[in-house]
Amino acid sequence: MAQSGRPATVTSVDFGLKSPPSPTGEEGANAVRSVAETAHYVAQLSGELAGMARTARLDVLAYFLEMAKLEAESARRTGTRP
Question: Residue 63: inside a domain, yes or no?
Answer without folding.
Answer: yes
